[in-house]
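Most newcomers find our protein records easier to grasp once they have seen one. To make this concrete, we reproduce a full record directly below:

===
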Amino acid sequence: MVFFDLGDSKATEVKDQYEMAIIGGGPAGLTAAIYAARGGLNTLVIEKSSEGGQIAVTEKVENYPGFVSIDGLELAERFSEHAKHFGATISNRGVRNLAFCCDKKQIVLDDATEIEAKTIVIATGATHRKLGVPGEKEYEGKGVSYCAICDGAFFKDKHVAVIGGGNSAIDEGLYLTQTAAKVTVVHRRDQLRADKILQERAFNNPKMDFVWDSVVEEIQGDAFVNNLVLENLKDGLKHNLPVDGVFVYIGLIPNSALFKNLLQTTADGFIKVNPVTFETSLPGVFAVGDVIDKELRQIINAAADGASAASSAIKLYF
């Protein structure tokens, strides 16, 4: 059978059986492919859209070792080419269904083709929970961000807003104070949900202030974000908050629905793994990157997850 790789004019042959099948072609999945293919495994990467995951749509990456600054799409292409160099097959197809039983792990692709693999690596990532307000989509990458570590340096000496009141929002807000002139936390409640120690640090930081009982109604700007329209949930009044950027931290949604009844997950749906081997609750099935239960979610540790999982699979099953 023949599948057509959307990123290549050539046809990519997809065989029926693989020693490792990787679902998801972001940094974690592609690094797993590099290590698996280099280790001699017949390896397939299944990525329903473009290889590279979220970095493929990131304008600049400035925190990946070896590159002071690199275009996100270029870095994604380098990951992909590296995996192909060692013989991994990359197919732009989605997954319709899965069947994990004993030594046989079957994947049904979106065109009903069945693939069988000895080991599986799940690298489907997570999606940032969106505000769903006017202007959010239009200004993503133009002042709207979901990652302070990734984009904070672009707002040096600027005024930014952080939306949310949990650990991620406050932790990332504190991080932003290292570069931003001012950080305004907008929270829908009258008190934070973050851990007490984070709250104390935030309240004692002179660069941070707070807007309580409020939600974002609209994100406005010209070429870039310059204003938030906020609504107070207690009195219903609306007011403007002029800002240069907005960082949204209202949660992540793991792309794990396909595995919900197959693997152990947290209450939020993040896949539980062995922290050393990255093996899931099912033998021979590994999970890596943003879809797993962990703290730091960056390109470098996603890649490390992939390397560890592939190495573990080789040691345990081959």
